[in-house]
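Objective 1.3, modelling of assemblies. Example input:
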Amino acid sequence: MALDLRSDVPDEALLVLYANGDPEAARTLTLRLAPLALRVAARMLGDRTEAEDVAQEAMLRLWRVAPGWRQGEAKVSTWLYRVTSNLCTDRLRRRGRSVALDAVAEPEDGRPGAVAGLIEADRAIALEAALAALPDRQRQAVVLRHLEGLTNPEIAEIMEIGVEAVESLTARGKRALTAALSGRREELGYDNG
Amino acid sequence: MTMADPHNTTDPEIALEAFFAAGRSAAAEPSATFLARVLAEAEAVQAERDAPIAEPPAPQQGLWAGIIAALGGWGGAGGLATATMAGVWLGFAGVQGSGTLTAFLAAPEEAAVTLELIPEFDSFVLAALETEG
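Predicted structure (tokens):
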């Protein structure tokens, strides 16, 4: 992937440059933010093609709001997480229920060490399947907290709920994941005591 | 986020963290075609915004609007209407001997050709004069 030549320029400033017609800003923002939108969408939907559609739609909305972006109100990444998550939730509702387990993609190769890599890939698939079985809001909170590495206040802003509600959602989500994955620990390379 | 070895733990929290770590490593990487699509839309939206505002199309011209325009606008049409009415008035009133340029031009030819546009005019004028008298 091409380098972010403006790594020292914050997203908000780049968005203003973009709105003013700077072509390089469009390129930099695409390289910086489209992967974020795609990652979250893929984790929430479990389907690569749908995730690309959602990420593209979220980015299109970003391009359109750029001229009216008010500095200092929200981080662009927070806004994008929120829009992407909401689009995913809409898709899941339309779909009826959450991710089809057989839609969980096989991870690509390139992991370190053949056996270790395969085990790691299997774990990722198992996690994705377990995430798919969670209620939408729990999955969203767990993905943002434990896979995207956001803080609870950031997640609260994205999900437009209180921090305590975020903590509750992630706690319940993790309990459900632990229960779902405990039966698979041995086959996925854990000694299990 | 390194904690205890997840391979040898009974702590579900630690074990779950190993799954999360695997999940983070397996994040979806964007393909070049996906990035190209997103960038193409970014540029399209940018170009749309930078494009000069198109002039609104001229309103459809009606028949009368076309005629008025051909006559030189409302001013021209008004002038034409005035001239027409003046001609009608002159024709009816039969102004004679105005003593101006018309009279000068008409003077050498006393027996000028008379064109009667309204043959009954004389009787009409006489009747009018009689009424007034």
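Chain A touches chain B through 55 residues (CB under 8 Å).
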